[in-house]
Design a protein that fits this description.
Elements lengths: L15 H6 L10 E6 L4 E5 L11 E5 L6 H7 L5 E22 L5 E20 L1 H11 L5 E13 L4 E10 L12 E2 L4 E2 L5 E2 L1 H11 L6 H10 L1 H11 L11 E3 L6
């Protein structure tokens, strides 16, 4: 279960409904480098990732909006200089599914989930030490998500090569339960899925119906974005029958104070 501890939600000029419905945002169909030089100068460029670009950085699995330059720009909005190589990859025997989690801006977020026979497109964000604290804060590390090492992976990297180990954010409350199973993100390409996949607007609408909200979907989103305690109470209902993350090669990285 999540707690009522705060999580850093980056500001955005988007209307809350547009911001929630647009998750996981525009994702390039190639590997790229996200660059930010100055607070108002952010962009991305296609690139082959490797060598000096990744030296000394942590490979962190990105399944949802962390693959999008738009979201990275929001997360690091107040940093003067940011460089993040984002390498396209394909992860075997996993899927990207909806978490039993409503984000601070009202979207239903993504999470990785073991899924035999499925191969899903993800990204590896190569993060330097100075960028990790902000990423942890936006993911609610220690509250909504655990930061973990996943070992024994079949993770094929764009441009050649592979990783058998990477870091990842694992949702503590599990994956959204829909008719007894998980639901994939239709925005994320996958082969071998046997379960349904939904676009974000359908996922939000399904959660809205399940929780018995008597207003519009738009009202539901705005309430979740405006009231953290109400959002967490609704999320707790979703987590009552959520699918727990169970992967033998997962080791949670302890918080510094633990």
């Amino acid at each position: 279960m999540t707690t009522d501890a705060p999580m850093f939600v980056p500001p955005s000029q988007l209307d809350p409904v547009e911001r929630a419905m647009g998750y996981p945002y525009a994702i390039p169909d190639c590997s790229f480098v996200f660059d930010k030089a100055g607070r108002d100068k952010a962009g991305w460029r296609p690139a082959e990732i490797g060598g000096a670009l990744t030296a000394g950085r942590h490979p962190v699995l990105a399944c949802g909006s962390n693959r999008s330059p738009d979201q990275l720009a929001r997360k690091y909005f107040d940093f003067d200089a940011v460089t993040i190589p984002v390498q396209r990859a394909w992860l075997g025997d996993f899927d990207v599914v909806y978490a039993a989690h409503i984000t601070g801006y009202g979207a239903v977020s993504a999470c990785p989930m073991p899924a035999t026979g499925v191969r899903v497109e993800v990204s590896v964000t190569w993060l330097s030490d100075d960028l990790m604290a902000r990423m942890h804060a936006t993911e609610g590390r220690g509250h909504s998500y655990d930061y973990a090492v996943l070992s024994g992976l079949d993770l094929a990297l764009d441009g050649g090569g592979a990783l058998d180990e990477a870091f990842a954010y694992i949702h503590r409350g599990g994956a959204l339960n829909a008719d007894g199973g998980t639901v994939g993100l239709a925005e994320v390409a996958a082969r071998g899925r046997s379960r349904p996949s939904w676009l974000q607007p359908r996922a939000i609408a399904a959660v809205h119906r399940r929780l018995g909200h008597d207003g519009t979907v738009e009202d539901f989103i705005r309430e979740n974005a405006a009231n953290r305690f109400l959002r967490l109470a609704r999320e707790a209902v979703l987590q009552q029958d959520a699918h727990a993350f169970a992967y033998e090669g997962c080791r949670v990285v302890p918080l510094p104070a633990e």
